[in-house]
Amino acid sequence: MADRYIPGGTTVETTVLGADEIILNMGPQHPSTHGVLRVKLHLDGEKVVGSECVIGYLHRGVEKIAEHRTYQQFAPYVDRMDYVAAVSNGLGYCEAVEKLMGVEAPPRARVIRTILTEMQRIASHLFWLGTHALDIGALTPLFYCLREREEILKIFEKYCGARLTTHAFRIGGLQYEAYDELEKDVERFCQDFDRRVDEYETLLTENRIWVGRTKGIGILGAADAIAMGVTGPVLRASGVQWDIRKAAPYAAYDQYSFIVPTGKNGDTYDRYLVRMEEMRQSRLICLQAIENIPTGPILGKVGKVLKPPPGEVYHAIEAPKGELGYYIVSDGTTQPYRVRIRPPSLINLEALDQMVRGHLVADVVAIIGTLDIVLGEVDR
User: How far is the C-alpha of 354 from the C-alpha of 366, rounded, in Å?
Assistant: First the structure.
């Protein structure tokens, strides 16, 4: 290249071959972009020299909807953002409003919240692994991952009647009391799941095609990851041991023992290994939690009409994809004055341009997959 490419620049760059660079639109209909994401790739042959993400095709104005609904009415809307991890979305919102009101969910509710949220983390990572492997060319892991995810969805369905956009929690506690067999179902899944993860690793971890497509691809250093605000498995794979469940415990995470896996190289392979270990750790959290679920109420002392005192709050949780934060401003009425949501998929997507530079077009597919984005929370 004669000059370094700058996204949004107006000058026409020239390749080393003397030809104008090629601009290739990947998406918004391309399946490997994991939703309606449009990526404008600037190419020198098949080599990526720059990229621009064009978003907004799925924008639904969730934050403005929140300002025209009561606090309780808005709760089901957040389930539709990261629709692969609806339970996590609901936990973050409910805890944000509870923090604004100065109330706390009862101990029984906090433990059951933790169980369901960790089961959701496993389900989210399973869906990521299956689709990520499919993007790269491995078909079998998709069927394996959907097989285990189906068992988790059955538990959600028995709990609240929903499988995908699972509305599990209420402000102040739980939407429903746990059904009689919840502990046995969770234990049965967890006891079987450990060997299932081993099956996935047998297929992929030392597979030479998988290693060739992921090692050294999409490297993101720790300093760059921190500077860009990247969170979740993408940040931890770069060697930064940051997990909100440990740094600022919420729900019942302070009661359980688990490790925060990290990587060394910050490449696509490390991000794969981090998520694999995270599924194992989520399994261990669930096994610890079901050993002693407290008795008592599932809903704290909150009224049917919520009027939080005037003020503002920011509350974040460790969602499967990273830091999911809710900023809420109350003016003392039944509706929030302002709501802003920090979705991990949007922030992590900002690192894509740096990660794809110098790689081939085929590697872009692997790098988008390793970010584990869902456009429902990117666009909101």
Answer: 14
- How far is 115 from 79, CA to CA, in rounded Å? 17
Alpha helices (H) in the chain, listed in sequence order: 62-66, 71-74, 86-101, 107-136, 140-160, 182-204, 208-214, 222-228, 233-236, 244-247, 268-291, 344-349, 352-356, 361-371, 375-379
Contacts of 72 (CB under 8 A, 6+ apart): 170, 171, 306
Question: From edge to edge, which strands make up the β-sheet containing 311-319?
Answer: 311-319, 322-330, 338-342
Give the residue extent of every domain in the chain.
62-379
The Cα-based distances of 337 to 74, 101, 334, 353 in angstroms read 13, 14, 9, 35
β partners of residue 138: none
CATH of 62-379, one of 1.10.645.10, 3.40.50.11220, 3.40.50.980, 2.40.100.10: 1.10.645.10
Helix or strand (DSSP H, E) at 325: strand 322-330
Q: How far apart are the C-alpha atoms of 363 and 356, rounded to whole Å?
A: 7
Compute the C-alpha angle 216/217/220, nearest 5°: 90
Q: What is the pTM of this model?
A: 0.90
The whole-angstrom separation of Cα 291 and Cα 121 is 20
Q: Please write the tens of the pLDDT for every residue from 20-50.
A: 788 989 878 877 888 888 999 999 888 999 9
pLDDT in tens, 332-355: 999 999 999 999 999 999 999 999
Residues 243/341, Cβ–Cβ less than 8 Å: no
Contacts 24+ apart (CB under 8 A), 102-105: 102/309, 103/172, 103/300, 103/301, 103/302, 104/300, 105/172, 105/173, 105/174, 105/299, 105/300
Residue 157 has which token pair? 């369905």
